[in-house]
Design goal:
The protein has one domain: Roll (Thiol Ester Dehydrase, Chain A). Strand 1 and strand 2 form a beta hairpin. It has five helices and six strands. The chain is of the alpha+beta class. It has a six-stranded antiparallel beta sheet, with helices on both faces. The N and C termini lie far apart (about 35 Å). The chain is globular. Helices cover about 35% and strands about 30% of the residues.
């Protein structure tokens, strides 16, 4: 458990966010969307959209039609990619809030596929606890490199379908 809030309950409220979550954050959502499309080409093929972000989590969305497999369900690689990108995007927001610039790479990850996804889907990446962000910021400023452990999920009809744990490394840029 990464925080004191109940993730399943939070997921429902996160899923219902609009693009104007937190008002001024809209510009950052658009900036992130453009950055993902420019720097990570698979995001275009997934038809990924940056759905929302607030103090608890980030949501990325993708349509089933462009990510379907032979069985008519979401392709596992697309699910994994969306979750990995949700973690990358959360790391990007943490960097933005720290007023730092860095290169974000994934070091390690694991996905558990609990049930097929049969409709358009969203990946929710939960914001790490404040203590982890403080430690991350301190390590990055001191050693020019830091790790961030992140968790994300995909739900369908309020039922958990895929879980993700990822470790991202950020290298500080001058």
């Amino acid at each position: 458990m990464i925080s004191t809030f109940k993730k399943g309950t939070l997921y429902i409220s996160v899923f219902d966010w609009g693009r104007k979550a937190m008002g001024l954050i809209t510009d950052q959502l658009q900036e992130l969307q453009a950055l993902l499309y420019k720097e990570i080409p698979i995001t275009k093929h997934l038809h990924l959209t940056v759905g929302a972000y607030n103090e608890h989590a980030l949501r990325l969305d993708a349509p089933l039609a462009e990510n379907v497999n032979h069985a008519g369900t979401a392709f596992g690689g697309s699910l994994s990619a969306l979750l990995t990108l949700a973690g990358w995007s959360m790391a990007w927001f943490v960097l933005q809030e720290s007023k730092l610039s860095g290169e974000i790479v994934i070091q390690d990850s694991s996905c558990k596929y609990l049930r097929p996804v049969k409709q358009d889907f969203s990946a929710i990446c939960y914001r790490p606890p404040a203590a982890q962000i403080i430690r991350f910021d301190k390590m990055l400023r001191t050693h020019k490199k830091a790790r961030l452990e992140l968790q994300a999920e995909i739900h369908e009809s309020n039922t958990l379908s895929v879980t993700f744990q990822g470790r991202y490394v950020v290298f500080l840029q001058d």
